[in-house]
Amino acid sequence: MSITVYWGSGSPFSWTVLLALETKGQGYESRLLQMSQGEHKTPEFLALNPRGKVPVLVDGSQVISESLAILTWLEAQYPEPPLFGRTAVEKAAVMQVVSELVSYVEAPIMAISRTTFFKPWDADSQAAISESVAAAKPELQRLDTRLQSMPWLAGQVLSVADLRLYPLLQLLWRAIGAADRKGGLPVMHELDRDNFPELDRWARQIEALHGYNRTYPPHWRA
Ligand SMILES: N[C@@H](CCC(=O)N[C@@H](CS)C(=O)NCC(=O)O)C(=O)O
Prior knowledge:
Layout: E1 3-8, H1 12-23, E2 29-33, H2 43-48, E3 56-59, E4 62-65, H3 67-77, H4 88-118, H5 123-146, H6 160-181, H7 197-207, H8 212-215, H9 218-221
Helix pairs in contact: 1-3, 1-6, 4-5, 4-6
The structure holds glutathione.
The site of glutathione (GSH) has 12 residues, from helix 1 and helix 3.
C-alpha cells in the first residue's frame, strides 16, 4: 500500500508523524500544505479531515487524522521497530509518558508558541506567556530528571514518547528566539535548552536519527 502524509511545516504534530515514518523506514509521499495560503482549508483537504488540521495520513483506502491515531495505525501496520514498546511493562511506560505529555506539557508549550507567533506582543500576551512558563518549567525539570537514569523517555529504546516531545520542545525554543526579536521576556529564558542538560543530550540523539533532516520544517531553514 502507498502512504501519503499531509503535513504543515513547523506543526509539531506533523513532525512527530514524519519522525515515526522515518524511524520505521516507511517510504511515503509528502504533501506539504502551505498553511499560510489556507491549503488546509480547501474542500479537497476538508474532505480528508473536516477539522482542517494536519497531519492526515492516507494509507491505501484508510484516511486517518489525529497524530496519536496515525501513530497507532503505523505501529499496527508496520510493527518494526516498535515505537509503543514490546512488553507490557514497556507499553505501559510509553503510554504513561505520552499521557503526561498530552495532559501537562503540550498545553503550556502550545500556548507560549501561539501567543509569541500569532498575538500582539503586549502586556496581556506577556502575562499569559509568563503563566505558561511557570506551568511548563516543573514539567521540563521532571523530564530532565527522568532522563538522568535512562537514555530515552520511556526507557532503553526510542518510542513515540520521544517523538511526541521533541517537536514541541523545538517549537518552544524557537518561540524564545522569536520573542527576543520582539523585545524579549526574560522569564522565557528559564526554559532555554541549556538549562536542561539531559533534555539537550536526548535531543541530540533525536537529531542523529536516520532521516531526521528530511523531517526538519523547511521554512525554519530559511
Ligand atoms: N490533536 C491534533 C492536533 C492537530 C493540530 O492542531 N494541527 C495544527 C497544526 S500544529 C493545525 O492543523 N492547525 C490548523 C487549524 O487549526 O486551522 C493531532 O494530534 O493531530
